[in-house]
Amino acid sequence: MSISRVAVVGAGIVGVALAREVTNRFPDAEVTVFDKAERLAAHQSGHTSGVVDPALAAQPGSPEAKLARRGVELLVPFVSERGIPYRECGQLLVAQNTDEADRLEEILARAEANSIPGVRLLDRKEMREVEPNARGVLALYAPHTAVTDFTALAEALASDVSAAGGTFRLGTEVTGFDVMSNEVRLRMRAAAPESHDDVAGDGDAVGSTDSEGHDDSSGHSNSSGRDETSERSDIDDQVHEAPRTYRGDNTTGPVIDFRDELRSRFGEKDWFKQVEDTIGSLSERFTNPTSGRERPGSQSGRPVGEPERPTSESDGPATHERERPAARERDRPDRAEDTEVFDLVIVCAGLQADRLAVASGFDDDPRIVPFTSDYYAVEAPAEVVRGIISTVPDPSSPFSERSVVRGINDGLVLGPNTIVSLGRERYDKHGFNLGDMGSTVGFKGFWKFAAQTAKTAARGAKSAVSTSAFVEEIRKFVPAIDATAVRADSRGIRAQAIDAEGTLVDELRVTTRGRLTMVRSLPKSGATSALATAERIANQVFDGPADADD
User: How confident is the model at residue 463 (pLDDT cuts 50, 70, 90)?
Assistant: First the structure.
């Protein structure tokens, strides 16, 4: 294959690792990395707890297990050479009941079959010798599980790309591709200004509210203008004061009523009754003409399917708001589309993977459903938690895992607290994108997944929408955590691929047509296995699928 110009779309950790892999294999090639964000690892790669995931529960011999093992083999010497922090601190999976203890037995068998070294079961006494503050009936101990700085890893990989002559074009949004016989035309434009803020420091200490619900902590505030003295509970943290209207591809169809949609499935569940008022408020804003939002089929001056941007409080009454969308469209800076031709294009776009695939003529399976993962921080002495203490993975509740992690900076990280995201790239707690929400709720595979996990999701729903309830879940297996000292830390959005049957796609999937390759999904241990994943994708691109696993 003749290669002189290569484009990699996506500057997350896997995209940058891919660019580095290409420069290693083709030193004379001109490699360009595109991303619409203004920085490397702006999304999922830069918002993690830092755990180097050994994939303890992976099916023996599965591609995920092989990638995780190979990923660690490549990661350790790389971070050692570059001086990136890496600490083997060990991990405990702690069972709280007999069902979880049975799952630990199965995980042990899988870990041993996958040749993960040193993994063993510990009784209560042995568990407390490793982690004095862990509480449970049985634990699985993986002594070589480590933590590292994945953002620093992405930056080091990018430094290698630059040193080899590669370039990074950040702030550039790729909109599509035209595949020709021996080249690919890449369409792009200047990215719109980022509309989200990282949530780090956005929350305040848990339990530091007075009897009136007023916050008396000194945490950093978000720029959204939230009234910190309001009595709104943290169940409303995901609600924005001025939501946008989603029209979708069918301009004659009804506005989606989330309340009716959810009530039909979960109306009898206690957790649904707790959040029904919030859902009702959203539904009213979506459907009530007096809310100042246009109904489907109205003329707004915006392209079909493009969501209206939220208006500020200074925009005036509803009648004035209805006049503003066209004016905002006129005022929006022109973002003219440009094109460039490359010999090879590899797309690793994460949260936008399915959209770019469809725009390029691929099918829409699997689809991306975004999940928000919140992390919390607490300063605590080393004797509280020495390494990593986690819950036991539950296949019937794939987003219920919790961990307390002694991070690289020596503070404790709690999380993730995971729930369906209100936007693919919305990190502020008080905003959402109804275009993204419409894409999720309009996908039948999402509802099939929800139905399959409804029973276990109901049990965890309270902690998903309440920070204090989440911390209490953590305290079940580490009661020494001081709830009053917990504060919000980072927020990540996970690009979860789901197929039409509602099955989570937690494996590497790559599709190729001509000189265009699309990475459709990544394994759960994506950051850990980034170097191995890049190696695997490059094998498939340059050597063909038959040699991809070598």
Answer: low
